[in-house]
Every structure is written in structure tokens, then in C-alpha cells.
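Milestone 3.1: sequence recovery, worked example.
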């Protein structure tokens, strides 16, 4: 699952993961977990994340591949936010060959920058149970999580000035990844301006068609 920050990758990937009963592997979530647990990797990654920059390839690839090789993924998995650079694409491909797992679908959710900034600056997160909120269309209960009651927070990297940096980084480093999968004829684009439900329906249609084609 590819797309600029704030297009709804995480929300969609979680739903797809539930419906298809396959693990959702999000490098952003994994890094936030490392930070929460105050691990060495978390400490290193935090500096980059807070600035809106990508965590260096070497660190992220090692973390992701450990996760991918940990379980037997006979039914596959959904990757959210990885790969984000061409170096990551190459590492992933090498690893998937070893695991004998093909990439079936690459989905890009697209959305224009001003809409992204509006959405992200309204995004809130529960630091306790990781529930996602948006002040515009899915608000918390006042400032409390509707699931566990904890006070919701804004991610440091969701502030407007950092979002603008993240979008630049996306253009420079991740757009070539999109172009690569397009050349491989694996890329399917979904309009992120639709409602979350319609985005989800578009994605399931793509997945069903891919299954049908075998
Ligand atoms: P996300 O939640 O996917 O938007 O990721 C939040 C931040 O984590 C990004 O802005 C990066 O700093 C870092 N990150 C997540 N995934 C990657 C990746 N594949 N490569 C490098 N940095 C990443």
C-alpha cells in the first residue's frame, strides 16, 4: 500500500487486513512501537521521524525483514508504508524471492497536497490503544479516545510544517518507487478523495479482480 502521508493508507490497510485475515505490516507503526518501548532503534528513528525525514534504509530494511521472516506467511501480508525508496524495493524483492512470495498488488492511494495537509493537521491518535481519529469526520469524544478514554494526541510529525517536509521527501524518494511498480505493471491507483468506504470498495474490487485473474 503506497501513497503520500495522510492519504488513508493505514486506515485502509487495517480494514483489508481484517477482511482478508492477513497481517498488516506497517513500518510507521513498528517504529512508533520501538519509540514507545525506548529501544535503541526507536531512539535512532525518532530523530528522523520528528523532522519528517525517512529513517535510513539500513535500519528500516533490517527491522522489516526481521518481521517478514519471523512468521510463515502462507497467505501473504499487506505492507503499509514500505518500500519508500528504490533501495528498499531491491531489498524487498531479494527477500521475497527467498520466501517464494510474489507481489500480487501494489496500490497507490492518491490525493492532492492541500487536502493531505488539511486531513493530517486534523488527525489525532490515542497513545494508549492506537485508535485513529480525525477532528473533521471521525472525532474523539471531546479530547478523549472513544475506545479507552485516554486523552488523544497529535503526532509530532503531523504538524503542518513537518507534513510539508514529508510531502517533499515523498516526491523525491518515493515517487521513483511508484514509477518502478508502474513499469512492472503492478500499480493500481485509487482516488483518495473518495469517502473511506468508497476507497475501501475500490481496493477490494482491485483485489478481487487480481484473484480472479489468478
Ligand atoms: P508513516 O506512519 O508510515 O507515515 O511513517 C511515519 C514515519 O516513519 C515516516 O515519516 C518516516 O520517518 C518513518 N518511516 C516509516 N516507514 C518508513 C520507510 N519505509 N522508510 C523510511 N522511513 C520510514
Amino acid at each position: 500500500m503506497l501513497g503520500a502521508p495522510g492519504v488513508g493508507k493505514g486506515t485502509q490497510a487495517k480494514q483489508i487486513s481484517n477482511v482478508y485475515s492477513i497481517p498488516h505490516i506497517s513500518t510507521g507503526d513498528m517504529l512508533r512501537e520501538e519509540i514507545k518501548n525506548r529501544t535503541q532503534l526507536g531512539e535512532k528513528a525518532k530523530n528522523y521521524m520528528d523532522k519528517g525525514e525517512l529513517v535510513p534504509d539500513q535500519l528500516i530494511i533490517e527491522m522489516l525483514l526481521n518481521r517478514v521472516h519471523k512468521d510463515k506467511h502462507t497467505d501473504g501480508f499487506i505492507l503499509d508504508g514500505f518500500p519508500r525508496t528504490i533501495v528498499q524495493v531491491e531489498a524487498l524483492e531479494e527477500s521475497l524471492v527467498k520466501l517464494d512470495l510474489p507481489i500480487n498488488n501494489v496500490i497507490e492511494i492518491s490525493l492532492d497536497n492541500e487536502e493531505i495537509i488539511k486531513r493530517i493537521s486534523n488527525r489525532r491518535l490515542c497513545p494508549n490503544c492506537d485508535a485513529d481519529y480525525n477532528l473533521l469526520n471521525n472525532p474523539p469524544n471531546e479530547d478523549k479516545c472513544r475506545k479507552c478514554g485516554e486523552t488523544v494526541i497529535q503526532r509530532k510529525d503531523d504538524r503542518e510544517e513537518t507534513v510539508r517536509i514529508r510531502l517533499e521527501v515523498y516526491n523525491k524518494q518515493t515517487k521513483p518507487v511508484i514509477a518502478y511498480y508502474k513499469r512492472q505493471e503492478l500499480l493500481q491507483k485509487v482516488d483518495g478523495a473518495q469517502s473511506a468506504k468508497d476507497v475501501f470498495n475500490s481496493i477490494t474490487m482491485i483485489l478481487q479482480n487480481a484473484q480472479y485473474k489468478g
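The chain has one domain: 9-112+161-213. The helical segments are 9-20, 27-36, 40-51, 57-70, 86-99, 113-121, 160-183, 196-213.
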